[in-house]
């Protein structure tokens, strides 16, 4: 028999059958379960400081069914006992009320009639969240002095501006929990790098980090890609295949471009996230998984919700913690160290000495609007390294005059020019040895010859 977890769970509901059932079901997993029929009677139990998770009904007065009483009690309990995680008890179909409760501070919701295993899982997840948040508070107290001057650099995540220091302080706190994270920001602001950083700082860092570009997955392949399929489930299903969620078990799954999902895809994803279980396409077996979910988008999800284009319940499942990554134009102090980072990176890549950068060039880089953000800056520095004399980088090497007219990223023409110049330089450095050129560029010889023909090389 599985050993019970030491925890005190409180149920508040005016239905004696619910209290009895809840006590029986939860005592199978947790050491102590208390029950009261009205919130007013719970004070003495809550004041003990032992309760970690509270299941709260939403209506108590005769004839009441709008949930207002429950919403008011959520606010009161959060004010007095912020460390307690609240799971609301609601009737099937009361989705709007459940969403409003989560806005007020509830962690999760369960519907009547209860599914015993799901309510145990919901309470267990809330308990984990409560305990990880307590650990954060303990660590914050211990390391407060260090946090005042936090500067984190991980790969290309550079934060010397106050805007990014604030974001990364938050990332360090959040990384120690299993809370779902939603990353918002323009294209090129580093959402993928931030997701990787949160994973690297988390207790799951030794496990897999699975990145999924939802924008590239068609609706017909959505379930197969994310949840897996059984051999023979469809024409091309030649063998059993696990999906991305199973492959990421124990680690972190990064769902990029979450705003691109169709309504049907959103519904399927919500069901899996909500139940923490999935079924492969063509299979009847239900499989559980344990992943930390980080999602990202450059879309305005709240505006999409208002238009009926994005599910509000999915939004609140994903954004337990929400990050809004600032565009590069709002973090000017980070531009010089980023430029230094990219100069070092590309000088190493192309076998060049690190050049001096003209002060006027830095000034112009800081004045430029960077519509493509970090990604555009990286392309601009790479181009400058390729075109420079190897001694000094001038402002004209960055080609800002041309790109400043654009409202998007560097144009396709500029990227093709960069590719052509790169190929030309590698050919010269390898004295025309095409095998070495292909190897250094990381492409096959057939691809290389196709590009040589495209750019008119003889």
Automatic annotation (TrEMBL):
Transmembrane segments: none annotated. GO terms for molecular function: ATP binding; sequence-specific DNA binding. The modification 4-aspartylphosphate is found at residue 57. Residues 8-127 form the Response regulatory domain. Residues 157-386 form the Sigma-54 factor interaction domain. Keywords: ATP-binding, DNA-binding, Nucleotide-binding, Phosphoprotein, Transcription, Transcription regulation. CDD domains: AAA (cd00009). Pfam families: AAA_lid_14 (PF25601), HTH_8 (PF02954), Response_reg (PF00072), Sigma54_activat (PF00158). InterPro entries: AAA+_ATPase (IPR003593), AAA_lid_NorR (IPR058031), CheY-like_superfamily (IPR011006), Homeodomain-like_sf (IPR009057), HTH_Fis (IPR002197), P-loop_NTPase (IPR027417), Sig_transdc_resp-reg_receiver (IPR001789), Sigma_54_int (IPR002078). SMART domains: AAA, REC. GO terms for biological process: phosphorelay signal transduction system; regulation of DNA-templated transcription. This is Sigma-54-dependent Fis family transcriptional regulator.
């Amino acid at each position: 028999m599985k050993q019970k977890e030491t925890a005190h769970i409180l149920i508040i509901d005016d239905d004696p059958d619910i209290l009895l059932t809840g006590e029986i079901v939860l005592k199978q997993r947790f050491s102590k379960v208390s029950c009261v029929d009205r919130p007013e009677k719970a004070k003495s139990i809550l004041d003990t400081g032992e309760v970690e998770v509270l299941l709260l009904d939403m209506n108590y007065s005769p004839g009441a069914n709008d949930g207002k009483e429950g919403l008011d009690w959520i606010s009161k309990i959060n004010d007095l006992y912020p460390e307690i995680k609240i799971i609301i008890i609601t009737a099937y179909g009361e989705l709007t009320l459940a969403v409003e409760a989560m806005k007020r501070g509830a962690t999760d919701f369960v519907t009547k009639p209860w599914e015993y295993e799901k309510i145990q899982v919901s309470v267990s997840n809330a308990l984990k969240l409560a305990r990880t948040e307590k650990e954060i508070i303990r660590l914050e107290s211990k390391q407060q002095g260090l946090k005042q001057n936090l500067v984190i650099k991980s790969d290309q995540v550079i934060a010397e501006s106050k805007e990014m220091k604030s974001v990364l302080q938050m990332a360090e706190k959040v990384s120690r929990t299993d809370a779902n994270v939603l990353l918002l920001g323009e294209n090129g602001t580093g959402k993928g790098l931030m997701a990787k950083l949160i994973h690297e700082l988390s207790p799951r860092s030794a496990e897999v980090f699975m990145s999924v570009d939802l924008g590239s997955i068609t609706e017909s392949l959505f379930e197969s890609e994310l949840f897996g399929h059984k051999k023979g489930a469809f024409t091309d299903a030649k063998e059993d295949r696990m999906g991305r969620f199973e492959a990421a078990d124990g680690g972190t799954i990064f769902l990029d471009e979450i705003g691109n999902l169709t309504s049907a895809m959103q519904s399927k994803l919500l069901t899996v996230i909500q139940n923490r279980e999935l079924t492969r396409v063509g299979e009847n077996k239900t499989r559980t998984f344990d992943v930390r979910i980080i999602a990202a988008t450059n879309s305005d999800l709240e505006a999409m919700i208002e238009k009926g284009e994005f599910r509000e319940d999915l939004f609140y499942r994903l954004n337990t913690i929400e990050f809004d990554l600032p565009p590069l134009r709002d973090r000017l102090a980070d531009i010089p160290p980023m430029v230094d980072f990219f100069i070092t990176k590309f000088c190493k890549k192309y076998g060049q000495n690190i050049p001096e950068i003209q002060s006027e060039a830095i000034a112009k880089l800081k004045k430029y609007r960077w519509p493509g953000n970090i990604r555009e800056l990286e392309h601009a520095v790479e181009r400058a390294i390729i075109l420079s004399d190897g001694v000094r980088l001038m402002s004209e090497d960055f080609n800002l005059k041309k790109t400043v007219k654009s409202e998007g990223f560097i144009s396709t023409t500029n990227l093709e020019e960069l590719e052509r110049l790169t190929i030309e330089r590698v050919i010269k450095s390898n004295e025309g040895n095409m095998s070495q050129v292909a190897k250094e560029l990381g492409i096959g010889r057939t691809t290389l010859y196709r590009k040589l023909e495209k750019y008119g090389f003889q």
